[in-house]
Amino acid sequence: MHTSLRRGLILVVAILIVLFGATSGSSQPIVRVGDTWTYEGIAHLNNKDVTFVETRRVLSVDYVEGKRSYLIKATSTWQEEGTVKLRYTDEWSLAGRDVVKGVPPSQYIESFVYQPALKMYSFPLTTGKEWWTSSNTSYTWSDPSNPNRTRIGRDQQTFLIKVTGEKDVQTSLGTFKAYVIEYRYRPAVPGAGTYLWYQYKFVESLGANVEEITYDPQGGISKVLKLVSFSSETYTTSLATSSVVQTQTTARTPSAISTTTKTPFTTDFLYSLILVLVVFLVLCVILLTLLARKKF
To answer: Dihedrals φ, ψ of 34, to 5°?
Structure first.
C-alpha cells in the first residue's frame, strides 16, 4: 500500500476513535435553565418520621472561559431543610452551597465555599471506578436582620467515592438503569478510617439521581429521596396526584404519576454527530484525492 495512503487511513481511524469517544464515551449530563426535578422524601428522626417534597430547579447556566457552571435551587416542604442554592462546575463538582433557614425575623443564612470543588462525579461513569476528593471548606453563618451576628469557620472534607455497580431502578417515571455511587466520608481524626455517608443512583438520561440515601455515622438510614417528576425540553413528566402536599409526620408510599415521555436526545449530541459526519466526509475526500494521485 502506498505510504501516503497508509498514513491517511491511520489518520482517519485515529480521528474517528477520538471523536466517537468524545461523543459517546461520557455520561456527563447537560442541563438547561428551567430543568426541574421533584423528589418525595422521608427523614427518620428519633421520635418520628417526616415526609416531605423537595424540588430542584436549574436557575442559571453560565460560561466562564468556555466552561459551563450551574446554579440549582432546591426548596423543600420540610422547613428544617430550608432553601438551598448549589453551584456546580462544568464537571458537576460542588463549588458552593448557600442555605437559608427560618422565616424573618428569625432567619439565618449558611454559606459554604469548597476549594477545590468537591468532585461528586467522575465521567464517564463505569462500574468499579473510584476516586478521592478533598476540599478546604469556608463556612459563614449570618443573620440578615443583624450584620453583627456573623460567624465564620473553616473545615476540611474528604470522601472516597466509588461506582459500585449498575442497577435497574423502578420509579414512578418508569424503570431506569442507574449507576450506584457510594460516598464514604473520612473524618479528620488520624486512623479513623471511612464510613458510608451517601448512596446515590444516577441516571444519565435524566441528568440526576433517581434515589438518594443519607446514612448516619452508625450506619443507619437517616433520609431517603426518590425522584417522582422531571421536566425539561427533551423529557417531560407530569404529576397526576401527589401523596405529600405539606410536611407530615407519617411515612407514605410515593404516589403513582402519569407520564408523557420523549426519548432523551440533546442538541449537544446532535451537533457532535453532525461534526463527526462532516469530518468523516472531509477525510473521505482526502483519501479519494490520495488514491487519484496514486493512479497518476
So the answer is: 100, -15
Q: What distance in Å separates the CA atoms of residue 69 and residue 71, rounded to the nearest whole number?
A: 7
Q: What is the pLDDT of residues 4-27, one digit of tens each?
A: 545 544 444 444 444 444 444 446
pTM check: above 0.90: no
Chain centre to alpha carbon of residue 121:
7
The residue range of the domain holding 176 is 39-265
DSSP secondary structure of the chain? --HHHHHHHHHHHHHHHHHHHHHHS-------TT-EEEEEEEEE-SS-EEEEEEEEEEEEEEEETTEEEEEEEEEESSGGG-EEEEEE-TT--EEEEEEEES-TTS-EEEEEEEEEEE----SSP-TT-EEEEEEEEEEEEEETTEEEEEEEEEEEEEEEEEEEEEEEEEETTEEEEEEEEEEEE--SSTT---EEEEEEEEEGGGTEEEEEEEE-TTS-EEEEEEEEEEE-SS-BB--S--S-SS-BSS--PPPP--B-------HHHHHHHHHHHHHHHHHHHHHHHHHHHHH-
Q: 283: Cβ–Cβ under 8 A, 6 or more apart, which residues?
A: 8, 11, 12, 15
Residue 171 counted as domain residue: yes
For 272, the grid coordinates are 457532535
Does 247 map to a domain? yes
Polymer length in residues for the chain? 296
Decide if 210 is inside a domain: yes
* Closest among 231, 252, 259, 209 to 40, alpha carbons compared: 252
Based on the structure, what is the number of domains in the chain?
1
pLDDT in tens, 20-55: 444 444 467 888 999 999 999 999 998 899 999 999
Q: Which residues partner with 109 through β-bridges?
A: 100, 142
Q: Is residue 7 part of a domain?
A: no
Give the type of residue at 288. L
